[in-house]
């Protein structure tokens, strides 16, 4: 005899937590994105430039792919998201190149007539004849007896290996309201180590500029004091 089969309905109250809202993928660094970073730049283990919230510095904002940064540094930033930290080392050939002796020239000491005392190591900004280009000029030798000064238009970081510590602060589709003012186009020529606006001139064009200025005695008068190095 087959026994009765009794079914029992059990009512279970299951408390289901609501499914978490879908969070979109974080913005990644890519062409056209506005990227905000903090960084420390070292050469030979010594700090050359720093932007850090610890020191109350405003972070650096740039548009990725706009040519504001060294290409090798942009490649290292590609695909990063806010909160990432990384180190990258750039040899001279991926940074500001090797030093070129052809970019040194003698100029009359009178060129610096507005400066009380010229000393090796001082930096100035030199404007090209057409006023379209600004280049960093470093004094490497002063010969007052013979009335000339040797200036060097190599980038201050030329020939150096650059060691960056980078922290990605934010990645956006649009700049912050003040972001468009955070990059000074002369930063590269002043040794910031990041922006390339003034340093993008090729060695060939710079060599031509040196040649033109050497043949034009009035050209050195365009040198303007930017303060001591």
Secondary structure blueprint with pairings:
Elements: E1 34-43, E2 46-51, E3 60-63, H1 71-77, E4 85-90, E5 104-108, E6 123-127, E7 134-143, E8 148-152, E9 162-172, H2 203-215, E10 223-225
Antiparallel strand pairs: 1-2, 1-3, 1-9, 4-9, 5-8, 6-7, 6-10, 7-8
Describe this structure in words.
Helices cover 9% and strands 28% of the residues. It has 229 residues and is mainly β. The chain has a single domain (34-174, 183-225), classed as Chitinase A, domain 3. The strands form two sheets. Strands 1, 2, 3, 4 and 9 form a five-stranded antiparallel beta sheet that branches. 29% of the residues are buried. Residues 1-8 and 183-229 have low confidence and may be disordered. Belongs to the FKBP-type PPIase family. It holds the Pfam family FKBP_C. One of its GO terms (biological process) is protein refolding. Residues 1-19 have a biased composition (Basic and acidic residues).
Feature tags:
PPIase_dom_sf; 229 residues; elongated; five-stranded antiparallel beta sheet; cytoplasm; 2 helices; PPIase_FKBP_dom; mainly beta; EC 5.2.1.8; Chitinase A, domain 3
